[in-house]
Amino acid sequence: MTDSATPDDPHPAHRPLTIVIAADTFSPDVNGAARFAERLAAGLAARGHDVHVMTPSVKHSVHGTFHEIIEGQRLTVHRPPGWRWPPHDWLRFVLPWMAKHYSRRLLDEVAADVVHSQSHIVLGRALTRIARQRGIPVVATNHVMAENILDFTTLPPLLDKVVVKLAWDDAKRTFDMSRAVTTPTRKAAEFLESTIDITGVIPISCGIDKRNYTPNLTPRPHNRVLFVGRLTTEKHVEVTLAAIAKLAPELPDIAFDIVGGGDQRRALEQTAQRLGIQDRVTFYGRVEEDDLRAAYTRADVFAIASIAELQSIATMEAMASGLPVVAADAVALPHLVHDGENGYLFAPGDVDDLADKLRRVLTASPEEYLRMQQASLDGVEIHDIEKTLDTFEKLYRGEPLDG
Questions:
Q1: What are the tens digits of pLDDT across the range 106-139?
Q2: Which string of DSSP letters, residue by residue, matches 106-156?
Q3: CATH says 210-382 is which class?
Q4: Would I find Transferase among this entry's keywords (predicted)?
C-alpha cells in the first residue's frame, strides 16, 4: 500500500479504508480488550471507513455475518462458530485449526487495505498469517499479560510456565509479520519488549470519549467506593473488601459497589460475609452502559487493586467521571494515577496501605477533594479517543507518526 496520492495510486492518502479487525473478545463481552476494539471500530466507522470485525459467535449454533450497532455505529461483524472455554465464565474461541479457513473466506469477500489484530492467540494469529500471504499490511495490538491467562489453563503451575513460554514464542512470530506492534502504555510496551525479543513497540492509549461521562463536582459527604471490572483473581478485589472491613468501624456509612461479573463473584460474596460487611457491599454484576455511567457518577472514589493492567479503561472512565482513584502501584496504573494528585497509589496487596489511602480520599476537605477531582479530569485529557484514532489511521496508511 503506497502513501502518496498520485493519479495512478489506488490508495490516496486520505480516502476511506477497508479495515478488518480481528478480536478474540468483542461485544457482548465486558473487558478492556473488548471495549477498546468496540470503540476503535466504531470510531473508525464514524470517520467513514468500512470496518469489518471478525470475532467468535456468542452461540455456537448462531454464526455468520451480521450488521450490528456498536457504540452507535453500524458495523459488519463476521462471527465464525465460537466455543465456550469451560474454566472461564464468558470466554469463547474459534477452533484454531479452523481459524485460517474463516480468515481466508473473509479476505476473499472483503478487499481489505489493512488487518488490525487485537490478539495474537487465535483469530488475530490466523488473520495475520493469511494477510501476510496476500500482501495485506497488519497492525497488531497486544492486550495480554500472563496473569490474564494462567487462571484459566487448568494446568499444574510447572506446565503453566511452559504454556506461557510457548505462547510468547508464537506471539513473537505473529508480531514479526506485522507492520507495527502497539500496546496501550509505555510501561506495557516495555513489558512486551522485555518478555519477547522485539523492539519498537508503540504505546497508544486505548482512548476514551470523556463526553460520555458525568462528573459530580458538588460538595457532599463521601462514603461510596467503586470497582468496575472482571471478577477474576488478578483483580484482587478481596484486598479492597478487606480494606473496607478495616475502615467500617471508623467510617460507619462506607459502602462498596462492585460492577462486573466473573468466576470469582461467589468467592468474593463469601469473603464479604466472612468479613461481616455484606450489608455494605453490593454486587451489581454486568450492567448496561447507562447504568455503568451512573455508577461512576454516584461513586466518591474508584479503587483498583489489580496487578495485571496494561492500561485499565475502567480507571480512565472513573477519571473522566471526576473520581479520585486509589490504585495498586503496579504495571500501568501509575501512568494514570499520580500519587497525591488525582488520588493515591498503594503497595500491591497491602490492605493497611489501601485502607489508609481510601481514608485520605473519603475524609478529605471539600477543597482537597475537588482538587483531586479536577486532577483526574485534567489527566484523562491526553487519552482522548480522537488522538488514538488519528494515530491508528497513520499506522494503517504507513505514514510516519508525530514525534
A1: 999 999 999 999 988 899 999 999 999 999 999 9
A2: HHHHS--SEEEES-SSSHHHHHHHHHHHTT--EEEE----HHHHHTTS-S-
A3: alpha beta
A4: yes
The residues that bridge with 65 in the sheet, in sequence order, are 78
Quote the CA–CA distance of 304 and 319 in Å, as a whole number. Answer: 13
Q: Angle 228-78-97 (CA atoms, 0-180°, nearest 5)?
A: 95
Q: Which residue has 463526553 as its cell numbers? A: 211
Tens digit of each residue's pLDDT (9 = 90 or more) over 330-355:
888 998 999 999 999 999 999 999 99
Question: Residues 265-293, buried b or exposed e (16+ Cβ, 10 A)?
Answer: beebbebbeebebeebbebeeebeeeebb
Given this structure, which CATH class describes domain 18-207+384-397? Answer: alpha beta
Its sign, for the CA torsion 212, 297, 356, 306, is: negative
Q: Which three cell numbers stand for residue 394?
A: 497513520
Domains 18-207+384-397 and 210-382 share a fold: yes
| Total residue count of the chain as it appears in this document | 403
Q: Please tell me whether the overall predicted TM-score, pTM, comes out greater than 0.85 for this model.
A: no
**In the chain, what percentage of residues exceed pLDDT 70?**
91
Nearest to 112 by CA among 65, 51, 68: 51
Sign of the C-alpha dihedral computed for residues 96, 101, 104 and 107 taken in this order: negative
DSSP 206-271: --B-GGG-----S-----EEEEES---GGG-HHHHHHHHHHHTTT-TT-EEEEEB--TTHHHHHHH
Q: Is 93 helix (H, G, I), strand (E, B) or coil?
A: strand
Going by C-alpha positions, the residue among 133, 107, 111, 1 that lies closest to residue 54 is: 107
Whether the pLDDT of residue 89 is over 90: the answer is: no
Question: For the chain, what are the domain ranges?
Answer: 18-207+384-397, 210-382
Who contacts 53 (Cβ-Cβ below 8 Å, separation ≥6)? 20, 21, 23, 26, 37, 41, 75, 76, 77, 78
